[in-house]
Amino acid sequence: MSKLGNLGARLHHGEVGYDFVKNRKIWYGISILITITAIVGLAVRGLHMGIEFQGGAVFTTPKNMSASVSQAEEYAEEASGHDAIVQKLGDGSLRIQIAGTDTAQSDQIKEALSEDLKVDAERINADLVGPSWGDQIANKAWQGLGIFLVLVVIYLAIAFEWRMALAAFVALIHDITITVGIYALVGFEVTPGTVIGLLTILGYSLYDTVVVFDSLKEQTRDITKQTRWTYSEIANRSINSTLVRSINTTVVALLPVGGLLFIGGGVLGAGMLNDISLSLFVGLAAGAYSSIFIATPLVADLKEREPQMKALKKRVLAKRAQAAAKGESPEDATSDGSFDEPDDATPAVVGPRDQPASRTRGRGGPSGKRR
């Protein structure tokens, strides 16, 4: 832990660091490849929408059923003629979901299930969701997501600038696409819990991005008044100064979510936890990646196109070339970032920097006394 703390301090002070911005084309390529894979998976497999979105019936059996999940799934598909999703709950009851059924079909399916499962029909609870209500829920979910994205862009444009708002918007779309694509590839059911998970991870991704943007805004204040760093270099310093913080918060958030997904959904068989935990797990990881490798490098790309930033880059490179010709290093720059020295500059004082020269030295004899 102490080594990690020392690394974080050295990253924050710029003593060490990785050039994320310089290698941004690599990160862009990786993100494009992952996004294309997610889109292909979404186009080929599609999303497995829950009955809350497409309508259908949900049957809940009594506790401690002896029938297995596979048997109940077979019975439900034979009775309905549609695909069925069966989950075994913690109390031993079965939750059977069948999409595309109406009220008349629901009664017939309930009677058939009672015979196959050897359970009184009155003890099987049936809930019916109409197609129109499912469409309304789906539309509300998309409206909520759209409103969230619009408000995010407006806020970032006001708090920072439009380039940062655009970069954050791209990062959020990146996170949504990857999460939805993973859902399509894995085949998990999309429920209202999935939508809640998506909105949650978008807020978390935005938090990481805003932390880096705030540091970048602070460090680039009056950037054109110096000639030591370009905008891209300061952006890279901002990423490195918040890197350990982003990693720590992401890992801490992923641990309980991973417990929900792998232990709750996998080991304990609580299938309902999969709906929200998978979106949270994938989204948190994608959000941390996009805030470091996508959002800030994209801001640097957009800012470097400005005439002022182009002129600053030319001055920085010119000063460095001048320093190299004099045999100096960039660390020898003056406090304002300039490598130039005035023509009448006096030789530097040699010795401890905290020992000022005496005011009387050199005015008298060797002892420094006045004559």
TrEMBL record:
Similarity comment text for this entry: Belongs to the SecD/SecF family. SecF subfamily.
Subcellular localization, as worded in the UniProt entry: Cell membrane
Alphabetical list of Pfam families matching this protein: Sec_GG, SecD_SecF_C
Biased composition (Acidic residues): 330-344
Gene that specifies this protein: secF
Membrane topology classification: Multi-pass membrane protein
Cited PANTHER family: PROTEIN TRANSLOCASE SUBUNIT SECF, PROTEIN-EXPORT MEMBRANE PROTEIN SEC
Residue ranges, annotated region (Disordered): 321-371
Quaternary assembly: Forms a complex with SecD. Part of the essential Sec protein translocation apparatus which comprises SecA, SecYEG and auxiliary proteins SecDF. Other proteins may also be involved.
Protein export membrane protein SecD/SecF C-terminal domain boundaries: 111-304
Sorted UniProt keywords: Cell membrane, Membrane, Protein transport, Translocation, Transmembrane, Transmembrane helix, Transport
Parts of the chain that traverse the membrane: 26-44, 141-158, 165-188, 194-216, 247-270, 276-300
Name this protein carries in UniProt: Protein-export membrane protein SecF
Function according to Swiss-Prot or TrEMBL: Part of the Sec protein translocase complex. Interacts with the SecYEG preprotein conducting channel. SecDF uses the proton motive force (PMF) to complete protein translocation after the ATP-dependent function of SecA.
Predominant place of localization: membrane
